[in-house]
Write the structure tokens for this entry.
Amino acid sequence: MHNEPTRKGSLVSLTDGTLTEAEARAMLERIRWPERVRCIFEDCGGADVYRVEVAAKTYPATATRKGRTVGARSLYKCKSCRRQFSVTKGTIFEDSKIPLRTWIVVMYRMCSSKKGVSALQIQREFGLSYESAWFMCHRIRYAMQDKSPKLLSGTVEADETYVGGKVRGRGHGYRKNKTIVFGMVERDGNARTHVVPDNSGPTLKPLLHAAIDTKNARLMTDEWRAYNGIEKSLPHGVIRHKSEYARGDIHTNTIESYWAILKRGLIGVYHNVDAGYLPMYASEFEFRYNRRKVKDAERFASLLGQVEGRLDWYLPAPESPSTS
Ligand SMILES: [Zn+2]
């Protein structure tokens, strides 16, 4: 799929609330099929597809099913296999009762805001239930995940940090209910973020080896012992934070500013994030960070290009809006 940059001027309707359902469908169609619409079914893939307008229909109740009304909609029909499909088939929007234009506007908001947008804000602004808003935000975060990340190279900084959970006092057990997040950032490049069960060498080293092009990189970390021995496979600079801030280009300032962005967002917008959902929030911050040098429109087009694939897990929505 292409990441066709959205044409100049067409973004106004995203921010002023005038985007229509037909415009939203056309936007998604252009991104999914930049040349021409193709049959969505893998066993066919036919190129001869035409549009059909399906009128609203009411299905009466039967012994086994409740009656229901399906609204008028625009579908595609494949000439080869005769099957019909919608523009949202096989995407994160499939089977959603929320209008596509709402999805699109929320996606744009999540791409253009620096810190993120909470489900509570979406609920209020778009008149959705909290649960719907929450699910929508998580499906969008799923689309934000980088499914085939490029290896990090050059100078890569790695570090662990503690996030989430309520802090009760600063004494013993301060970090007990916090979650450990491990991050790697290529200087002037991309970040990778993982929620990890612990910060030991056997946990962190495989992640470093999987994410870094070890032949074309050098690693910068603090003196934490989990990194001991990594120099056998990867040149390693260590900064001793007890006594120094930076020694030449040996420092971890890049990953530390990444943590600052992540934490400001998690505290400011999402308040307390349950540890189970943290990987989803981390994907969102990583998505924006890795596209920090491009304009909002380009970041949005790139997200719209990643909506294929369905969320294949189920998470229960939190009951109280205190957890955004
Ligand atoms: Zn077909």
